[in-house]
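Inverse folding, one chain.
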């Protein structure tokens, strides 16, 4: 099995080399991997640092187009049988990738999501902050809506860690340019007949003062709209 790991990146000068270092250390028996970094028009020193990278394929967007656009570019250039999305902000540690790949290798699943939310909120940790509890509740709500609309229980629709066969998406028309990629790909995978298996993962959320880009209200509202839209249309 060949695994293509797509890393969409925008202004992550403080983390990009570390995430690539962590990805290089990932070794899974029976799996070869390629790493594709898509820089989505960074204006900080991310691109300068990417010039030093030798263990990944680097693709540059001329201007910032959004996470969805960066992922689409990665998919077009992927050579693997399976594709995994890896954010560049260090919230998700690549040592968990083996847990997502295992069900595929064991022929127990074709699509695997890593879930952070099959738990109660961490009110004594990050979700003690109001922005994070709102993010937690918003994500649980979107996941519930996804479950009701598409007839399969999902706890973390917005997760970064999504593993799916390339053949499931290579002919799929993906319209999203921003964070609405998450509901669109989920909707279309489910409508395409794929069952999503979730495996538990952990994450270390960074604060908005550290560069977190997701806007819970704005992007959450868009996600809700797209869940309904793609339930009714293609």
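Residues assigned per position:
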């Amino acid at each position: 099995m060949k695994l293509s790991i797509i890393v969409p990146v925008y202004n992550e000068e403080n983390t990009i080399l570390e995430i690539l270092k962590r990805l290089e250390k990932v070794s899974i028996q029976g799996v070869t991997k390629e790493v594709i970094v898509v820089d989505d028009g960074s204006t900080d020193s991310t691109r300068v640092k990417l010039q030093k990278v030798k263990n990944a394929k680097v693709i540059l967007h001329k201007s910032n187009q959004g996470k969805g656009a960066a992922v689409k570019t990665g998919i077009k250039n992927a050579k693997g049988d399976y594709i995994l999305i890896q954010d560049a902000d260090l919230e998700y540690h690549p040592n968990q990738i083996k847990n997502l790949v295992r069900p595929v290798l064991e022929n127990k699943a074709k699509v695997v999501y890593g879930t952070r939310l099959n738990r109660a909120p961490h009110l004594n940790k990050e979700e003690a902050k109001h922005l994070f509890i709102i993010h937690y509740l918003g994500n649980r709500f979107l996941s519930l809506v996804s479950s009701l609309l598409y007839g399969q229980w999902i706890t973390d629709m917005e997760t970064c860690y999504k593993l799916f066969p390339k053949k499931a998406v290579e002919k799929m028309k993906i319209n999203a340019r921003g964070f609405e990629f998450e509901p669109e790909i989920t909707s279309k995978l489910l409508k395409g007949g794929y069952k999503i298996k979730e495996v538990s993962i952990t994450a270390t959320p960074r604060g908005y003062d550290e560069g977190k880009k997701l806007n819970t209200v704005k992007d959450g509202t868009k996600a809700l709209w797209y869940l309904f839209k793609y339930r009714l249309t293609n």
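The longest strand covers residues 2-9. The CA atoms of residues 142 and 221 lie 9 Å apart.
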